[in-house]
Amino acid sequence: MNGRPPQRRNAFYAQAGGVTAVLNATAAALIETCRANDDRIGKVFAGRSGILGALDEALIDTSLESEETLRALRHTPGGAFGSARFRIGRAGLEDHAVYERLVDVFRAHDIGYVFYNGGNGSADTTLQLSRIPEVFGHPLACIHVPKTIDNDILDTDCSPGFGSAAKYLAVSMREAAADVASMTATSTRVFVLEAMGRHAGWMVAAMGLAADSHNHPPHLLLFAERPFEEEEFLRRVSDTVARHGYCVIGVSEGLRTPDGRFIAEIPATIAGRNEQLGGVAPVLARLVHGRLGLKCHWATADYLQRSARHIASATDLAHAEAVGREAVRLALAGRTAVMPVIERISDHPYRWQLGVADLAGIATREKCLPRDFITDSGYHISARARAYLLPLIQGETDVPFRDGLPVHARLRAVTARKKLPPWDPHGERQQVALSKKT
Amino acid sequence: MNGRPPQRRNAFYAQAGGVTAVLNATAAALIETCRANDDRIGKVFAGRSGILGALDEALIDTSLESEETLRALRHTPGGAFGSARFRIGRAGLEDHAVYERLVDVFRAHDIGYVFYNGGNGSADTTLQLSRIPEVFGHPLACIHVPKTIDNDILDTDCSPGFGSAAKYLAVSMREAAADVASMTATSTRVFVLEAMGRHAGWMVAAMGLAADSHNHPPHLLLFAERPFEEEEFLRRVSDTVARHGYCVIGVSEGLRTPDGRFIAEIPATIAGRNEQLGGVAPVLARLVHGRLGLKCHWATADYLQRSARHIASATDLAHAEAVGREAVRLALAGRTAVMPVIERISDHPYRWQLGVADLAGIATREKCLPRDFITDSGYHISARARAYLLPLIQGETDVPFRDGLPVHARLRAVTARKKLPPWDPHGERQQVALSKKT
Lengths: 438, 438
Hints:
Two copies of one chain form a homodimer. By secondary structure, chain A is of the alpha/beta class. Chain A has 15 helices and 14 strands. In chain A, the strands form four sheets. In chain A, strands 1, 2, 3, 4, 5 and 6 form a six-stranded mixed beta sheet that branches. A four-stranded parallel beta sheet of chain A has the order 8-9-7-10, with helices on both faces. Chain A has a two-stranded antiparallel sheet with strand order 11-12. In chain A, helix 1 runs antiparallel to helix 3 and helix 1 (23-36) packs parallel to helix 13 (314-332). Chains A and B meet through strand 4, helix 7, helix 10, helix 11 and strand 10 of A and strand 4, helix 7, helix 10, helix 11 and strand 10 of B.
């Protein structure tokens, strides 16, 4: 219609799962690349709250955002269009009504490209969405764009978002350790910094980069991969304090007892409740104080570690923008059910290139911290881990400040006029909502 | 002796109490100013672990540190010479043996200047030390150099160290809020960020700067000054989530129940133990989750907020260096029992100058958050608070990075040859240690 060639179609972009410091940089790069290819791609609609925006037909028309706003997105943490934790079953098998709705929306808005920006779960969703042409006859290129601080996506050397969280944790560990070292004569002897990572210890491994040698903090790292041996831990803390005067510890929120219980859940159990993870650092601090009589401070960075755009890694930012651009190129090259990946050419000097991975081999699987990334003692990272991790935290990025605070993008976030009746006539939405990840 | 004029005497510098991101910048500026006045001041000895270094005759000879190291101190968090929480009683009244030892050490090392770099408790110690000439006949100029993230020192517009912690908290709050705002559709609805400040809410007030208007996070601030009203709090959280989709909360570690118990101590009480503060944020998170059924994340920044030199305030850094230099000038002008202070000339544009305050009026008292810094509702900062706080977080500072991490000073930290027998013949040290602050 309107004389435009039939191959010029609109795109749908969605953010999925936990956000990162550089997720919006991927979005900006992707949208800019679409704009640069306006002979093939019309508008980019961003789902308000990710894929929910497609179901609700809440499509943010990014063509109304200025170039200045897109540039500002580059240094805005979080997910500017809203993210969602939402899983869909198999196309044509489960959740058929959900797919029908998605196809209705895609057809109504002439959407021929889907860019789904998330982690392992989202890779699976993208793979399912890629069956839409076959099952529903609606032509659609489905590209997954990798993102997660957890660094657990297969077939890519690293996941955009991880490098910045890793840098935040390594920097914070080094700075806090300098603080603790000052106070040991009369006050705090033990400090515990907790990292995210329920299943894998990538984040706690990153804290190990703060150490220059074996004599510098952090002295002990507690990985999600290794069962927590209380007596051995206390002995090591005690030995470290005897040797260095203090002990700095990095711990993964996912630390478990040998019988598989989350350490962070123990206080809730004591109080007769069973709730979401309550922080492993305070549990360790109470243990150290109670058993060893040492004054112990602790910090739980939580969202700070994944939103700290002010200390993002320049390398990570470059990755995040590159996968955004490459996703568009892959779609325009006729690819579907794939994602752009980061391939490492060398550690030192660090060199990398873009590659492409088939989603069929990736979805719903997790990349674990290799066993040889942990020292034989089990309490620190190996030289191999350092060689892998160090390039990912290299470089600092420019962030504009106003009035002493970082400036974030303010989107107009205007949604396109709805063309369909509201979804949810049979309560499908509630049903789907119940199956969402928590 | 050695033909040098009798007025050329050595200086003793000590760091005291909780450290800050810019404490070492004060030290560097002070030492450099002493070096620039080498006709009057000989060596600067820094106490290893603060005043304990004087008692132990563990005097770090800073003349052996290079100019490069002093420059690096400027961007090194913590207390590079070691800090101590240590209170001494009145000279000539209590702790007489402690003063005798100090005077012995000062005499042995020809120390005529004491620069004591700390908070309210240290101001009192400096005031007591200033009685040494009168009680012991040893000439000594005693200058307190203000420092504390708590911002509770009287007679100065602000305390060096506070502005950087305030900036860290405001930046972290703004970034984390952007993260939370992304996730509200299917995941986290409430986020709690905990600030230090056991007695005063200066730090939690700083988080309020992250708000651009009343419609932006943080939505609720819980000050140490205001008793925690559980039902009203839950109602406000619920209302905020209903209105904005999410609720971001800043809380002071010193939050108390109306009957005066620390909220952070409640879990330990439940578990039948009575220990150090365990974090108020997880308690609030469990409350919100348990009573309102909302997914809640929380972070406790702890030492990260006072060591985050990478995001220090340029204004705070300028204050920290200025008081270091001015302390030396005051001593050389023959002053004692005083401290250099920051005087505000205007809020906007922010202009300030140095002043001097008598320690007699300051010591052991605390500057509280003014009542009119809190809004009438009690849950946010007033315009007056913003006008006061905003200048203190202005400007970013250059921090050198190597391998993706901030570079910190590495001191030689060589102690001067001891001239006295070891202290502690009658167990005085143990006795004093028992009276130390915890």
